[in-house]
Amino acid sequence: MATTAESRNGVVIILTLIVAMLLMLVPLPETARYFRPEWVVLTLVYWAMALPHRVSIGVGWLVGLLMDVTMGGTLGIMAFSYAFAVYLIARFHLQLRQYPLWQQALTILSVVVVVHLVSVVTSKSESTWLIWMPVLTSTLLWPVMFATLRKIRRTFQVS
């Protein structure tokens, strides 16, 4: 039987993922919609890097499937890309932990490019350079996300 601390720890991870999903659903003005960071990817990447035994490929797939349903996209596209992103991070999590934040941000850049590339290729959105802005904003936001989620993890003793 799980203790109260163990069950609370899992709830913290779930709550951060729910907040990230809600941030993806917040309506933005037309001029700002291109600059929305990939909140869910950043949150999944953090948890997969910090606690790969708790946030695995299956969690990435399930969160991606939920995002497919809520965003109304082709079923399985985000599920595949999120699961693949979690796989990449989990595969190299020991190395990534040793990198300084700026190097981690470059790694996040490549992971977000892969996730975003899958969604851009499969969608019928307009072809403009602005569709790549979420990659840049996510990369620039990584140090803040990392610090915030690390503070949450340490405050609630998520392990």
TrEMBL record:
InterPro entries: Cell_shape_determining_MreD (IPR007227), MreD_proteobac (IPR026034). Pfam families: MreD (PF04093). Keywords: Cell inner membrane, Cell membrane, Cell shape, Membrane, Transmembrane, Transmembrane helix. It is found in: Cell inner membrane; Cell membrane. GO terms for biological process: regulation of cell shape. It is a multi-pass membrane protein. It comes from the Bacteria. One of its GO terms (cellular component) is plasma membrane. The chain crosses the membrane at residues 12-28, 40-63, 69-89, 101-123, 129-149. The keyword Membrane applies. NCBIfam families: shape_MreD. Involved in formation of the rod shape of the cell. May also contribute to regulation of formation of penicillin-binding proteins. Belongs to the MreD family. This is Rod shape-determining protein MreD.
